[in-house]
Amino acid sequence: MSVAIVIGIVLFLAALWLHLGMIRLAKRTLQPASVNSLRLSLAYLVVLASHLAVTVLFALGFAGAAGMGLGGFDKEPAMSAMDLFYFSLINITTLGLGDIYPTGHLRALAGIESLTGFLLISCTAQFVFSTMKKQEA
């Protein structure tokens, strides 16, 4: 279990650094005093790309951890790359549909991903709120 937690912490830190860097990039997109709809849309697309990149990061982490024998997934037939991405996307949004679920120590990694997703979604919500507030002023 400790190996899965260490992998989860490394993925958490990588996801956090990636997301904060992308938020900074999105903020730079909005630097001119007059922000138009195109710039705002571009900034939000950068944030979406960040969330998708973090999802891929965790999907790769799940694949690597499963390859190390830390657990698997209860799904037949075997997990494809799309299944790993789908599971990671559902998990990081904390939606958790339950049609695919991890077994073994991958459950700890899934929990860390959900907590990471909650934190990153909160950061994104703050960014969206602040940009909308500036638009009203």
TrEMBL record:
SUPFAM superfamilies noted in UniProt: Voltage-gated potassium channels
Pfam families linked to this entry: Ion_trans_2
Domain Potassium channel: residue ranges: 67-132
Keyword annotations: Membrane, Transmembrane, Transmembrane helix
TM stretches of this protein: 42-63, 84-102, 108-129
Keyword Membrane: yes
Protein name: Membrane protein
